[in-house]
Model the fold of this input.
Amino acid sequence: MFSLVNRVAIVTGSAGLLGKAHCRALAAAGANVVVADLIEKDCIEIANALGEKHLGIVLNVTEADSIKNAKEIILQKYGRIDILVNNAAINDMFENPLLGAKQSMFEHYPLDMFNKCLEVNVMGMFLCSQILGSVMAEQKSGSIINIASTYGIVAPDQSLYQNKNGEQVFYKSPAYPVTKSAVIGFTKYLAAYWGNKNVRVNSLSPGGVENNQDDFFQQKYAAKTLLGRMADADDYQGAIVFLASDASAYMTGANLVVDGGFTTI
Done:
C-alpha cells in the first residue's frame, strides 16, 4: 500500500534541502518524479540523479503562466498528475547580519519582506493547488501534500535565537509563522472542497532540520525536543510516502506533525 509505481508526483522547491529529500523518497517508492524549482539546470541534475524516468523543469510558484506551462509539459510526458507536494517556501534572510536583530523585531519588520513571504508561501501554494490540483479533481484521484511547520502550530520561542552571551542574534519574524499557519488552514479548506472528487489534501509539519546553524541554536533546539536532536532531512521521507500513497487512503484535512516532540510540551 506504500507503493507509488506508475504515479506522477511533482515537488515544488525541489532544489532545497527538504525538497531533494522529498524527491528521493517518492522516487524510491516508485513514482515518476517531476523536480520543479526556479533554476532549470539544478532541476535537471537532480532528476537525472534519480533516474531516467524522472523530469526536471523550471517552475515559479508565484507565476500562473509558469505553473500552467509546467502542467502542460507534465501531461504531455506522463498524461496525469497524482501527487503534488507544495514544498516551495522562503524564510527571512537579512542582507546585513549586523542589522538583523533590529530588522527582525516586530516593531521594525519590513512590510516588503512580509508580503514576499505571503506571496511565495501562501499564494504559491494556492496557485499550484488550483492549476495542478485541478488535474487531480478531473481524474477524481490524487494527493496534495502542503508543507507546513511546527511554527504553524506554536509560536516561536525567541530565546532559541539568543547566543551564549544572552544577546538576541535575531528574532523569528512574524511572516513565517503566519504563512505556515495559513498552510494548515488552506489544507483544511481544500480537503473539504475536493473531498467529493477523491482528492486528499493533508499538511506535513516538520520540525527544525540541522543545516549548519550556530552551535548555540542547535543545542537549544535539541533540548526542546523529546528526542534530544534536530531533524535530519531524511527524517521526513516516510511521512511523505505515507501521505502520497494508499497507506493514508482514509486521511484528508489532517496535519501530520513530525517534529521529534518539539510541540508536545
Remarks:
- The CA atoms of residues 229 and 243 lie 24 Å apart.
- Residues 111-139 form the longest helix (29 residues).
